[in-house]
């Protein structure tokens, strides 16, 4: 029986994945919006949230690649009707990744001051960054656990329960942000920036608890660790290593973007924080369709349905471009109100408005890059993803950023370089995909 790739079925997978995907940027955007409006030192607090979020995103993206690897392997075995052979793999993967997360905490907590100096943070911004990070980092293992469980659900062609879990976490974070940052007179003293950090950690813990519950109650995947390791653990580790190298390249991009913005001063890093978090939000909205590509491509590849795989990629390109244009249009209509949600500082708003149009213009290009990222992850073609991103980062983004910075473009330099980086990520993947699967579809 052929795999269903109708728009209705794609949306059935993509819409819940979209809702689940936006939870992470909403956590950061909530922190940014609420912290950006506190009574004292709002600009410095907002800058600190931006710097720490960039660093935590790096850690999560490096180790959170388990989701893609687990999803790829599970979906391929679902397509081949051999799920029983890898049922113990997710628990083993979760054990490996959560163990690494504990080591990350031990390795970064004492050196937080040094780490954020590397991001050009100093003075009050540095102090706030350290305080915020030393609380937020304890949510790290819970986040990685949840991400890995989401990978198992995706492999099983199920995005509904991850959506429920993400909604629970997001609502919890928003409510606790307001309560802990601003306080409740007579009951809870305002905790300002630290309150935002505590809110995030509690939300991450709750998401991990519900992830375990739904996986055990709604699937055949156990969480009990068993040995020996599954035969696919080697392929899983190779995928992770390729994605690890790829993510280092990704975070070189984010590091340079954040470091350059910080070097321009508090006003610029605050404006950059708003712009980059809205960029992340757009990326995670598209991630719903990238997730559908990930889920379905793995199943189609496992079932050797190559012609349907090509049809799926063509459909997703069309849907992705439409979504990217819609995001850009909505952002254009809300251009000025969006900035004022995060800050009332006219200098910060001026710099934000100078670059937000670039963020909006690149949205259709982002959709193509992110959707093909998802497809290649579903196929398990992590080596190709690694090589393309290395080239995009070191041959496109970094040289362009340094060149435009030398021309004093400041934040515009960062976002123009990001646009070219996105183009260099997306279009080579389309060419590689077609080169591999058009011949296979003719044989098939």
* Computed Rg: 21 Å
Distance between the termini: 15 Å
Number of strands: 0
Bin the helical content: over 70%
**How many helical elements?**
18
Structural class: mainly alpha
Q: How much strand?
A: under 5%
Unreliable stretches: none
General form? globular
Main sheet attributes: strand count, strand direction, barrel closure: none
What is the averaged pLDDT score? 85
Order of helices and strands: HHHHHHHHHHHHHHHHHH
Family: Belongs to the multi antimicrobial extrusion (MATE) (TC 2.A.66.1) family.
Membrane topology: Multi-pass membrane protein
Pfam families: MatE (PF01554)
Organism: Hwangdonia seohaensis
Task: Describe, in plain words, how this protein is organized in 3D.
Belongs to the multi antimicrobial extrusion (MATE) (TC 2.A.66.1) family. Pfam families: MatE (PF01554). Keywords: Antiport, Cell membrane, Ion transport, Membrane, Transmembrane, Transmembrane helix, Transport. This protein has 444 residues and is an all-alpha fold. It has helices at 7-21, 23-35, 42-63, 66-79, 89-108, 112-117, 123-136, 140-155, 160-182, 192-218, 233-263, 266-302, 306-333, 335-342, 346-361, 363-379, 382-406, 411-443. The longest helix has 37 residues, at 266-302. The two termini are 15 Å apart.
